[in-house]
Amino acid sequence: SMALFAMGNIAFTAGKMGNLNELFQNLPLIRLSLVALSHLRDNDDKVIGNAIRTLGHLCKLLYNSEHKAILRPSDSKVWMKICGETAFELSRKIELAVADVIDTFQQR
User: Fold this and answer.
1) Which of 54, 66, 89, 103 is deepest in the core (most CB within 10 A)?
2) pLDDT score recorded for residue 59
3) How far apart are the two ends of the chain, measured CA to CA in Å?
4) With contact defined as beta carbons under 8 Å apart, do 13 and 27 qualify?
5) 45 DSSP 8-state letter
6) Could you give the CA distance from residue 23 to residue 17 in angstroms, rounded to a whole number?
């Protein structure tokens, strides 16, 4: 959990830097994103929260409107897969939370 939190801090701070192309070459952003994505299935809510935060900061780096990132075509495909899997996992989390609220409400 602390490692994910630290990854999120690195991504947040890196987003304030000027040249993102240099950053993409020096930080393993895809690998960091895949690690954070894998933790969305963790049983600990704190770990899941840190994974969501980290993915948010990493995605903001990629889609920051102030800087244009140049990606290799192979990286673009991997990023699309990461974004798709992240959206799927987060939608599952939201679905579970809504079902839990409905179940709690119906038990009253």
Assistant:
1) 54
2) 79
3) 35
4) no
5) H
6) 8
What's the CA gap between 58 and 4, in Å, rounded?
Answer: 11
The C-alpha atoms of residue 84 and residue 37 are separated, in whole angstroms, by 11
Per-residue pLDDT of the chain (108 residues; tens, 9 = 90+): 677 777 777 777 766 666 666 666 666 778 888 888 999 889 998 888 888 888 888 877 776 656 556 667 777 788 888 888 989 998 988 898 898 888 888 887
CA distance 9 to 1: 13
C-beta neighbour count of 14 within 10 angstroms = 18
Question: What pTM does this model have?
Answer: 0.70
- The one-letter code for the residue type at 64 is N
Angstrom distance (rounded) from CA 14 to CA 23: 8
Alpha-carbon gap, residue 49 to 4, rounded angstroms: 9
